Each structure stands twice: as C-alpha cells, then as structure tokens.
C-alpha cells in the first residue's frame, strides 16, 4: 500500500465530511471513527501490520458479526481511518494533527514509543482520546497525561514476571548481561529489568547501551563471550533482535538462554534465523490458550479462530492487543452511555472488565495494570511458540540450557 494512501474500512463514509464537531460525537452519523497512523512500511512495519490486522479484526467482527454496537440506545457501526506513517515520527505527527483538525476524536496508537510519544502529545493537547498497544515508554505515562491509555504496562514495570521465570529455572540463573537500544522504550525497559534482577539477587555482569540505529554488534558480542552470562537479555526491537541473534551465530557467542523482549514472536524472526531461532525466549501479552473470555469474540481461542478464518497474516499477540484497544473503547462508551469524549475518558480511567484479551484495567497514569496485563514468557520450540511462564499458564517446560549453535540440527 502506498504510504500516502488513507486506509478506510467499515461503514460507508458519507456522514464523515462535516467537520464541525468531533466525528465520534455525531450520533446522527451512526458511525464511530477511529483515527490514527500505523507503520505499514518502514522498519516498524513487521509489528505495525500485526497491530493493524488486530484493529481490522475488531472492526470486522463488530460490524459483521454483531451488527454494530449499541451505545446510549443507538446502534453504531465502526470504521478505521488510518494512515501509513512509514515508521517516521515526524510524518506520524503531521498526519495526526491533520486528523485532529478534521475533527477525529477517538485515536488508536501507532507502533513504537518513538511514534506514540509525539502523537499522543498532540491528541492530549487537543482534548482527544488515544487507546494504544504500541507505546510502553514511561515517558508516555509520567508527564501528567490524562487522555492516553496503554494496554501494556509501562516499560519499567514489565520485568517482574521475567525474573520469576529466571529464578525458577534449574540450574537457577545467577548472572545475566543486558543489551538495550537507546530509544524511549528500550532504555526504560532495561532500567526496570536491571532493578528487578538485582533486587532478586541476580548479578548483572554487563549493561550495554546500543544506538537506536545499529548495523553491527560484533564488538559487543566479544564482551558477552568474555563475561559468559547465564542469560543474555536484549531489550531491543524486532530488527535489532534479529541482527543480534544472527551475529551471535556467526561469532559462536553461546549463552544458556537468549531472551529478547521483541523479535522472536514474529514470522520474520523465524524466517531470518531458521533452525537457530529455536529456544529464543520473548515476552508475549496474550496467547490463544489463555483462559480469558468476554462479550466480544468470546474466548481467547475464539478470537484466534475468527482471526485465522478472516486474515492471512500469521497470528502474533499484537493482533489481540490491537483488537483489545477497540473493544476497550467500546466497553467504556457503553458504560458511559454516550460517545461524548469527556464521559468516555472518565469511563476509560475507571474501566475494569474481562474480555478475550484478559482483564483490562489501567493505572491512574493510564498504563496497563502490571499485575493484570504484564507479559507471559514464550519460547520458540521447533516450529511453534510455547508458554513457559507463568507456571499456571505454561504449555511446555523451558528449554534450558539451550544447545550451542553448532549443535542445532
């Protein structure tokens, strides 16, 4: 899709041309418009397209399977009005400002904190709303914003369950090294990981800062070989995670566990690394086997079944988190009994309900409640992804220690 092309799906758009009041507030239109941008091209497109498919799945289901949504006694259909921001924060900001000027009131987030940060600043200043599953930087939630909500916990609160898993391995993990990219999300996540690890008695041997854009990590991997940690933790985005894993293979840098918070969950990771992708550990905020259910889609498995029947792109948890943004908007509007923005904002702030994605509840700062919406740990085992933590949701035992690269068949 050309990055300048406006993506529109859902109900007919004849009622969206008058721009006097926010589009979402025009009950007579009987259409709820969700605006925003998403990386359909560029470096963040691999995951951006996953989030987009989740948005599309929710709109398709509500329109076609539910016949719309009833709010305040009136049934409305849904539509998406999303631009390709090409993974470019400046472009995204321009597009979002244009939609604010056109009267859009409900926004969905892009993917990546570097894009969500400037765009949520625009929507906040304009009195609009954003529910998003693409930005976890602490900066999004610690600067006094009251109209931005994140499905994920903020970055510094995302590692509690990971330390639980590491401490439960046998032999127990004693040492780790951490590599992170210096971007608004990864640095906060790495800081939170270091704090949690050290508080639980795990020694952090290395804490290595990479540039936001990096093309070679061989010098860093020399340090890792010398330190020889039990676990290498990478709080890096998809393509950087692939780069690190590839160069670990080529330099024969072996650790007992490679844990990358983003990357191993994607189809691209498996294609890029082949047999070497096996045993990589990652975070996942949802899985079809999770015991969640609610009014939209039904259970977690039914969401997965519906998605797979209607979309070709392979399932990842970002599809579910994207769909949950729209479901959360709708549940808040139903509880408010209106599409008026301030009323929906207040309902979002107080929301506490269960759906196919889990129990949705936000902190007073707008990020996902870490005790309810924190990550599970997934591991690539052969051609599939297995839940290895928490124990009560696990579908397989962790492969630990992982075989050396030279021993993988």
Automatic annotation (TrEMBL):
Keyword Secreted annotated: no
Signal peptide coordinates: 1-27
Any Pfam family the entry gives: Peripla_BP_6
Superkingdom in the source lineage: Bacteria
Record-annotated membrane-spanning stretches: none
Keywords: Amino-acid transport, Signal, Transport
Single biological process term from Gene Ontology: amino acid transport
Residue intervals of the Leucine-binding protein domain: 31-367
Family indicated by similarity: Belongs to the leucine-binding protein family.
Protein name, per record: Amino acid/amide ABC transporter substrate-binding protein, HAAT family
